[in-house]
Specification:
pyridoxal phosphate; globular; five-stranded antiparallel beta sheet; Aspartate Aminotransferase, domain 1; Aspartate Aminotransferase, domain 2; Aminotransferase class V-fold PLP-dependent enzyme; lyase activity; PyrdxlP-dep_Trfase; single chain; seven-stranded mixed beta sheet
């Protein structure tokens, strides 16, 4: 079986989490997120973001987090703005539209929205009863193509959204990887100040499953639990999520795991750079998108698994390679050797 670089959730979970799940297995706890582990995990996240007024809710996965947040925040006639690469637009089987909320997409080569992009959508919707009303801006950090937002970019988005009475929601499935990327100048405290809500990803960063939804806008907090329950996302054994995030947040393990994943991706990026490859986007997270010939892609696919992301002109293809917190170092070295051999 080939070693897989297709995603960052192919492995189970970090040993600390398994150990904690076993250690606390026979403790009797309240259900539905009212257990002491979930409550303590919420307190630690509030401390990390320096916001005691933010509310934290744990759910099983990213699509679930996006679906619940967006459907809870919006009234029936309101809609969402997203980059065309956004996960809610491309990879969630129309989950948002299924709740009755249209997703307006903006083509973006770098996967990042700016105020001008959002304004282009607002210009086509004049806030009259005949049209949908754009109300929420959805962004991802890191994006689905591995790029990250700078502090200035997020400040500009936040300011624009406030001026135009729009909610700003950040998909953080790979937020730890963004925070540990070279060139990043954002931290959790600033993200909490600049967004109405975001979520901190666990599934793609060492947890068995789970995301931590953080609601910063106090007007959006009341009765959010009802939406979680109605969407079937309120686990009776909510402790399973609380324990995992408690372990991830202790000692900043979630950042250590992300830094490891990023570093392994950069080793592979360096190998592709050495043989003269260009990249679809210049990334410093755990996702890279080198451009190779179809023949080269087929050669590498004989030994390693990855996705062919986008077909290009002249028999070229951008491939997507993702590393994880558990990516085997020997596999990375072997892959790098195969990459360098493409030149000859």
């Amino acid at each position: 079986m080939n070693f897989s670089f297709k995603n960052d959730y192919a492995e189970g979970c970090h040993p600390n989490i398994l150990k904690a799940l076993v250690q606390f297995n026979f403790d009797q706890q309240n259900g539905y997120g009212l257990d002491e582990y979930s409550q303590l995990a919420e307190q630690i996240i509030q401390e990390k973001i320096k916001s005691e007024t933010s509310k934290v809710h744990f759910v099983a996965g990213g699509t679930q987090a996006n679906l619940i947040v967006i459907s809870a925040f919006l009234r029936p006639h309101e809609s969402v703005v997203s980059a065309s690469t956004g996960h809610i637009f491309t990879n969630e089987a129309g989950a948002i539209e299924a709740t009755g909320h249209k997703v307006h997409s903006v083509e973006k080569a770098d996967g990042k929205l700016n105020p001008e992009d959002i304004q282009s959508i607002l210009d086509g919707h004049q806030n009259i009863p005949h049209q949908l009303k754009p109300k929420l801006v959805y962004i991802s950090n890191s994006t689905e193509i591995g790029t990250i937002y700078t502090q200035q970019e997020l400040e500009d988005l936040s300011k624009f959204c406030k001026e135009n009475e729009l909610y700003l929601f950040m998909d953080g499935a790979r937020l730890p990887q963004a925070l540990m990327a070279f060139g990043n100048d954002l931290n959790l405290e600033e993200i909490a100040k600049l967004t109405d809500a975001f979520y901190l990803g666990g599934t793609k960063n060492g947890a068995l499953l789970g995301e931590a939804i953080v609601i910063n806008n106090q007007s959006l907090q009341p009765e959010f639990g009802f939406h979680i329950k109605q969407k079937g996302a309120m686990l009776a054994k909510g402790r399973l999520l609380g324990i995992q995030f408690l372990e991830l947040m202790r000692g900043d393990l979630y950042l250590q795991l992300a830094a490891y994943a990023n570093a392994k991706a950069m080793l592979l990026k360096s190998a592709f750079t050495e043989i003269g490859c260009e990249f679809l986007t210049d990334t410093f997270t755990n996702q890279i998108f080198p451009i190779v010939s179809i023949e080269q892609a087929e050669n590498l696919a004989e030994h390693f698994d990855f996705y062919q992301w986008k077909k290009l002109e002249n028999d070229k293809v951008a491939i997507r390679i993702i590393t994880s917190w558990a990516t085997n170092e020997e596999a990375v070295e072997q892959f790098a050797t195969k990459i360098r051999a493409l030149k000859s």
